[in-house]
Amino acid sequence: MALPPADVMSGILDELESFEALVRDLDDSQLATPTRCDGWAVRDVAAHVIGSRAEVAAGRPEGLGVADLNE
User: Fold this and answer.
1) Which residues of 53-67 are buried (b: 16+ CB within 10 A; e: fewer)?
2) Taking a C-beta distance cutoff of 8 angstroms, is the pair 64, 52 a contact?
């Protein structure tokens, strides 16, 4: 059963607000912490999440998930 688009958007916005609250006050040391993603620090994961959402919001989802763009 598919969710109505309004519910999906509401859920996405809620998750983005939670993510912002999680990363907003991290200091440089915390942002430099390695993650489970090989070679990626917390700042890299945060930039990836934020950047990919910004591309979608700007109407440019082409290429998301492509290795070259992820770099």
Assistant:
1) eeeeeeeeeeeeeee
2) yes
Residue with tokens 């430099």: 32
CB atoms within 10 A of CB 46: 19
| pLDDT for the residue 71 | 61
43 touches 31 (CB < 8 A): yes
pTM (predicted TM-score): 0.71
Phi, then psi, of 3 in degrees rounded to 5: -80, 150
Least Cα distance to 66 among 52, 50, 54, 53 occurs for 52
Lookup: tokens for 62? 């082409």
